[in-house]
Amino acid sequence: MVSASGQNLRSNPGKDQNSESKHPATYNDSASNSLSGLISDADDRPYSTVVTFDPHPQEFFTGQPKKLLTPLAEKVELLTAMGVEQLVLLPFDRELASLTASEFVEEILVRQLQASRISVGMDFRFGRGRAGTAVDLQSIASSYGIDVTLAPLYSCGEGDRISSSAIREALASGDLRKAHQLLGRPYSLVGTVVGGQRLGRTIGFPTANIELPPEKFLPRFGVYAVQVLVSMLSNSEAGEIKDPSSSYEWKNPQSLIDRKASDLSILSGVMNVGCRPTVDGQQPTIEIHLLDWSGDLYGQTLSASLVEYLRPEQKFASLDALKTQIQADCDVARKVLSKPT
Q1: Contact 76/113 with Cβ under 8 angstroms?
Q2: For the segment 290-337, what is each residue's pLDDT rounded down to a tens digit?
């Protein structure tokens, strides 16, 4: 977390993917509730700011796409709900990677961000070859009058260190209890309802097909009991966020926060994550059947919170066998979701 001046960020345009600009892209929560835009020139106070890299450094060095627990649009929404006023995306390229620890502080934190206070984890590393430590940051920044707070490392109740790697491992194994404990909240899949093959309708279980950002980390394939948050606003009443790192556009970026209770519904459902082997599917899909509910959700943004992993994905001998199993999944999900939290 950084307290940074809005003045310098206003003078630096966001990085255009088709340009050679090295300036950080910024996403800000303005008075108009837009999450995309620059801070008003009328206010020159420091802003609570989260600074991150885009793309992920590991993705840059390996050349392999990095699956993320919170893609950009989801990150913006979560940070906004926490009261963060500004998200800065530092374009991680060879030029940035070549900066020494001292150069990173002087060029990025001091000159560009005009940081006044900084908070990082004890295990923070920065600068060329990850040579700089959190203590180094504290020492270098102090020469510029910047206060640096070192946040301690945390562990959950079972002694596991809280980290994105541990969360990914728990989700990959279907251990939602551990994943939620590490996250401090249920893991959610957030995306837009798009058209599908409509096979579910033919067997009595219509599903909403969810398009996720391609970089979203998927949990273990299988069937889940889920709680689904749905915005009842029309598409024209919400904006959109364009992730500059992909072709994905997230409709209704603020549909799940800052809404009146009457605008939202929390619905129970059964979700399948996987390739649908019974119908010879090839690509992973996300399908949600909402229990005891019907309506048109096309174009809406849904947030499905994973409550319990019910069973692995499997191939059935016939559609009738699949239908029987889906009914059984729905019965189990009702029991799971009716338990007090």
Answers
A1: no
A2: 998 888 888 888 999 999 999 999 888 888 999 999 999 999 999 999
